[in-house]
């Protein structure tokens, strides 16, 4: 495998964190891992921590088209996917594409959309296509959904059920900036307007090739597949967990670990790659007996991970 591909993606992170997203190394890296593994990412945090900025900065640096949906209780599936209208000029019906027909789709406050609209979006995420009035339309490649939801229970929200949370490869938070970085933001204001100056570091063709390379050329040994199985089995056998990580979740850990290895310029997965992604990929899939706080899930999974012996190479 050609090492420079992984370096290209690391360069995206270093350039964006140096100029536009200081202190956001972790969510940026996880968003790229979601992209490279062919999945989607859920960012769960309070408003105002830079989720929109992250999505916009990524789209510009990767040379990808960007769409945004602000979820509300009256949002319809067609507001995301598009709808068929009658064109009087041509005297026939035509399909008007919705914001889903972009490479990167930011879905803000997904838990404010009604379940029917959430389902339409999740179907598009899973199938990479949508059907309208009996006609199927392919979504562009690559296709990455960056969905956000506020962790606090609020009026007028429809929390994603566990089965739909499972559709996101990764869940993470943004976190508050470091003290000095936040002081700078307070002093100089939002950098939202500066995003136009971000230069394209990669293009669509290179990204599609990288996604294919992660899927076909990064090797996961039988020993490491067994390590992933032991992690998911531990979540299924823990007395504090009602529902552990599913087989889909185990596959997602493997895919994300491959993407992590690729970004490090390797053509094979190491145990460190699995440990690096396991909590971000696995924690949101857990259903706990007492409550379902994200921090509790992460803490519990971290505890299980530390108790499982790391396989020797």
General description of the model:
The two termini are 20 Å apart. The chain has twelve helices and eleven strands. It has two domains: 1-189 and 199-216, P-loop containing nucleotide triphosphate hydrolases (Rossmann fold, 3-Layer(aba) Sandwich); 218-313, Magnesium chelatase subunit I, C-Terminal domain (Helicase, Ruva Protein, domain 3). With 313 residues, it is of the alpha/beta class. The strands form four sheets. A five-stranded parallel β-sheet has the order 2-5-8-1-9. α2 packs across α10 (247-263), α9 packs across α10 (247-263) and α11 (271-282) packs antiparallel against α12. The chain is globular, with a radius of gyration of 20 Å.
List the helices and strands and how they pair.
Elements: H1 4-19, H2 25-36, E1 41-44, H3 51-62, E2 66-70, H4 77-81, E3 82-87, E4 92-97, E5 104-108, H5 115-127, E6 129-132, E7 135-138, E8 144-149, H6 162-165, E9 170-172, H7 179-188, H8 204-217, H9 222-236, E10 241-243, H10 247-263, H11 271-282, E11 287-288, H12 294-307
Parallel strand pairs: 1-8, 1-9, 2-5, 5-8
Antiparallel strand pairs: 3-4, 6-7, 10-11
């Amino acid at each position: 495998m050609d090492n420079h591909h992984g370096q290209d993606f690391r360069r995206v992170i270093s350039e964006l964190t140096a100029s536009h997203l200081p202190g956001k190394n972790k969510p940026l890296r996880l968003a790229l891992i979601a992209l490279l593994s062919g999945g989607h990412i859920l960012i769960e945090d309070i408003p105002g921590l830079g989720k929109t900025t992250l999505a916009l900065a990524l789209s510009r640096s990767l040379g990808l088209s960007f769409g945004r949906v602000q979820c509300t209780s009256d949002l319809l599936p067609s507001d995301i996917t598009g709808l068929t209208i009658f064109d009087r000029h041509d005297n026939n019906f035509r399909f008007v594409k919705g914001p889903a027909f972009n490479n990167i789709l930011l879905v803000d406050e997904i838990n404010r959309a009604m379940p029917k609209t959430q389902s339409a979006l999740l179907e598009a995420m899973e199938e990479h296509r949508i059907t309208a009035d009996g006609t199927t339309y392919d979504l562009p490649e690559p296709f990455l959904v960056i969905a956000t939801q506020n962790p606090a229970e609020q009026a007028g929200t429809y929390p994603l059920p566990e089965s739909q949370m499972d559709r996101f490869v990764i869940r993470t938070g943004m976190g508050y900036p470091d003290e000095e970085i936040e002081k700078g933001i307070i002093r100089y204001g939002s950098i939202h307007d500066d995003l136009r100056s971000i230069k394209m570091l990669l293009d669509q063709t290179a990204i599609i090739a990288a996604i294919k390379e992660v899927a076909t050329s990064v090797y996961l040994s039988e020993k490491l597949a067994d390590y992933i199985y032991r992690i998911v089995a531990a979540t299924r056998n823990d007395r504090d967990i009602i529902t552990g990580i599913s087989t889909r979740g185990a596959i997602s850990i493997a895919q994300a670990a491959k993407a992590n290895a690729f970004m490090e310029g390797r053509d094979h997965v190491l145990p460190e790659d699995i440990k690096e992604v396991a909590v971000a990929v696995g924690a949101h899939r857990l259903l706990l007996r007492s409550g379902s706080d994200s921090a509790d899930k992460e803490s519990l999974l971290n505890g299980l991970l530390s108790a499982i012996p790391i396989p020797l190479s």
